[in-house]
Amino acid sequence: MKALRLMIAIWTCGALVLAGCGDDSSTETTGGGATTARQEQKTAQQGEESSSKGSATSQDTSKKPTVAAPSGPPPAELVENDLVEGLGPTAEVGDEVTIHYVGASYEDGKEFDASWGERPFTFRLGSGVLLPGGEQGVKGMKSGGRRELIIPPPLAYGKEGSPPLIGPNETLIFVVDMLAVK
Q1: Omega into 74 within 30° of 0, i.e. cis?
Q2: What CA–CA distance (Å, rounded) separates 150 from 76?
Q3: 145 in a structural domain
Q4: Is residue 58 part of a domain?
Q5: Which of 28-42, 82-96, 102-116, 146-160 has the lowest mean pLDDT?
Q6: Which among 24, 111, 172, 182 is least buried, having the fewest CB atoms inside 10 angstroms?
């Protein structure tokens, strides 16, 4: 189990950690306050996929979140839902970050891995230790924040999966708590 946890953390962490009852209307702005076209598209996609969200039972980042299976078909692209916006430094490529996470199956909400109850996971963002969807999803999080990531197969384990817990072409949900950014 520890080997699987390490493999998942290595491939996913940035993963990770999800449940979604966050505010769908949040968008990021660039320095001048203008929303970029990519951000507008992302926001529109999140609105259209609101039925794709899981739900965390608690937004208290001092407690382990639980993930419920969402309704509707899984999204084709990475979905990021800020459940709690942090107030600390923003995680960028090259930063050392420390997170807690819970990983679950999109299909049934069954948890396959979590750092809660053990040590938090520390890694250098952009080093490739997470799944591609995890790397993308953790980037931009602020310390103190909680984010749900819904990661489609091409950004997770793909058609091979990670037997026995993660099947082929499985969409994953991670709820990630950003504990520290250095």
Answers
A1: no
A2: 10
A3: yes
A4: yes
A5: 28-42
A6: 182
CA distance 31 to 151: 28
pLDDT band at 58; cut points 50, 70, 90: low
pTM of the predicted model as reported, rounded to 2 decimal places: 0.71
- What's the mean pLDDT in 79-85? 96
**Phi (first) and psi of residue 116, to 5 degrees:** -60, 140
User: Is the Cβ–Cβ distance between 126 and 39 less than 8 Å?
Assistant: no
CA 98 to chain centre: 14
CA torsion 111-14-101-84 (nearest 10°) is -120
Number of domains in the chain: 1
Q: What angle do CA 12, 16, 21 make, to 5 degrees?
A: 160
What's the pLDDT score for residue 61?
84
- H runs (alpha helix) in the chain: 2-11, 37-48, 132-138
CA distances from 110 to 23, 54, 114, 162, 164 (A): 24, 11, 11, 15, 13
Q: 74 in a domain, yes or no?
A: yes
Asked if residues 59 and 81 have their Cβ atoms less than 8 Å apart, the reply is no
Q: What is the CATH number of the domain that holds 65?
A: 3.10.50.40
Q: What is the pLDDT of residues 106-135, one digit of tens each?
A: 999 999 999 998 999 999 999 999 999 999
